[in-house]
Design a protein that fits this description.
3 domains; five-stranded mixed β-sheet; Heat Shock Protein 90; about 400 residues; Rossmann fold; 10 helices
Length: about 400
């Protein structure tokens, strides 16, 4: 801890200045004069701190000394200021000093018949000012000087650590900002690259449209086989590119929160199930329980999540699918339950990651391993939770979407 024993004494009385000098920075050859009643007669001990004292005989000169100290980067730690002086009094002097150096500790030396502390506080505009009543003794002066100079040093050290911490935070914030800008740039570059890739892949795919113009009726069986393989490969690659771009573009397609709409669960479920049954007329979807409640969200995205979960159940089960919803602890739970092929316990934690789930592994289902990942992204942006449960292979599965209702609903 850096010590600072520089003390400013402002008093128009030369005897008081001499007395304070004897207490704080005594000369071995000097003799203390104690004829006046401002100082008690027991001033016999000498300070061991060897304070550096600067004296001023009025407020204006004292203020100038503070200005000089600040300009020289050699501030005072403590100032003893007499209250009653010609010209600018002690309170006004303290106010001026603090306007220049807000860190200095100030002790007002005052007699009983001078301004009360409340009036001085009102003038200086601060409550952390100290008072010393006349007559004073050496112990009071020494204690004030020692305690306040130490307090000044502690505060300076704390301020230094605070500044260092603020600088570290600022530097770290700058680093994080740079990293964020880099991520934004990489994300933009990724989008640009994907669009370029889409364009480049679409060019040869566009030429493959000519396959549809071929006369298949006059083809040999072996030629038709190659033709069908080419058509299937073209269609799958086209769909893959479309799915790939849609996956990376999902965050940009979600409406801003301010544009979210009030969604009614029962009606949305009915609409989604009706559309799915049109494509899968033989599949049985049973709604066992429905919550007649609503919440704020992007309606298209909510429908997309339900569609993904229901289509996933259809792809990996052959029997009926159950839809169940309930409201509990301010949260809406929507469950899609099937009794199909189930999920290994080791896959439950990764099933929502792209290209890692069964949808991708089983190409016979026509999946690309991205649909559940899309549902996860939409859920996270909305602040929902989504997870899968299963007892294991051939024991069915249950996908749960948990929607925490907002306070303004």
């Amino acid at each position: 801890m850096k010590k600072n024993h520089r003390i400013l004494i402002i008093d128009d009385d030369s005897f008081i200045r001499e007395a304070l000098k004897e207490i704080l920075a005594p000369d071995e050859s000097s003799v203390l004069i104690d004829e006046k009643t401002f100082v008690n007669e027991d001033l016999v001990n000498r300070s061991k701190y060897n304070y550096e004292l600067i004296f001023s005989d009025n407020g204006n000169n004292g203020v100038k000394e503070v200005e000089k100290a600040i300009n020289d980067s050699n501030p005072f730690s403590v100032a003893f200021v007499d209250m009653k002086m010609p010209g600018m009094d002690g309170a006004q002097t303290a106010k001026k000093i603090w306007e220049i150096d807000s860190q200095i500790k100030i002790v007002i030396i005052t007699a009983f018949d001078e301004s009360p502390p409340e009036e001085i506080i009102k003038i200086v505009g601060r409550e952390d000012i100290y008072y010393l009543r006349k007559p004073f003794n050496e112990h009071e002066i020494s204690q004030f000087a020692r305690a306040l100079s130490n307090q000044w040093a502690i505060e300076q050290e704390l301020n230094m650590h605070k500044q260092n911490l603020e600088n570290m935070i600022c530097d770290r914030t700058t680093e994080l900002q740079k990293a964020y800008e880099l991520i934004k740039k990489l994300d933009k570059d990724k989008g640009t690259f994907l669009k370029y890739l889409y364009h480049e892949l679409n060019t040869p795919l566009y030429h493959m449209v000519a396959l549809d113009l071929l006369d298949t009726e006059n083809m040999k069986d072996s030629e038709k086989n190659y033709y069908n393989i080419a058509i299937a490969g073209r269609d799958r690659l086209t769909n893959l590119i479309s799915e790939f771009l849609d996956y990376f573009d999902i965050p940009n397609k979600i409406l801003p929160k301010k544009d979210w709409r009030n969604i009614t669960i029962d009606k949305t479920l009915q609409n989604v199930i009706q559309k799915i049954k049109q494509k899968n007329p033989n599949r049985k979807i049973i709604v066992k329980k429905v919550v007649y409640d609503s919440f704020l969200a992007d309606p298209i995205c909510f429908q997309k999540v339900l569609t993904i979960l229901l289509n996933n159940a259809i792809s990996f089960s052959e029997n009926e699918i159950i839809v169940h919803s309930e409201f509990k602890d301010k949260t809406i739970y929507i469950s899609i339950i099937d009794n199909g092929k189930g999920i290994k316990q080791s896959d439950l934690l990764t099933i929502f990651e792209p290209f890692s789930n069964e949808e991708f592994k089983r190409h016979d289902k026509g999946g690309y391993g991205l649909n559940l990942s899309k549902a996860k992204i939409i859920a996270e942006v909305h602040g929902w939770n989504i997870w899968a449960e299963s007892g294991g292979l051939d024991k069915g599965s249950k996908f749960v979407l948990a929607i925490k209702k907002l306070n303004n609903m």
